[in-house]
Amino acid sequence: MKTVEKKLWPDYFDLDKNTSNDFKLADFDLQDGDQIKFREWDPQTKEYTGREYTRKVKKVLKHESPTRYWPQEELEKYGMYIIEWK
Q1: Please, is 7 exposed, middle or buried when counting C-beta atoms within 10 Å of its C-beta (0-12, 13-18, 19+)?
Q2: Which domains does the chain have, with CATH numbers?
Q3: Which residues of the chain carry a pLDDT beneath 70?
Q4: 34, 62, 69, 73 - which has most CB atoms within 10 Å?
């Protein structure tokens, strides 16, 4: 089991914290049982705010469907994770 750190913009920090699953660009290694530490990132100040939380991954599936959040070329290169939290 490992812990992966990911930036999360303020608009999504509180919203994502209360969900049971998430979609992330699969540009990092992630396995069932790993943890993701989400750190709130302020794009205006280009600094972390100090708020963070950690989620344990229950199940991760790799998916390659297009989405409006990432460029098509990145999706083709990496795919996309569908992550379910414990």
Answers
A1: exposed
A2: 3-85 (2.30.130.30)
A3: 64-68
A4: 34
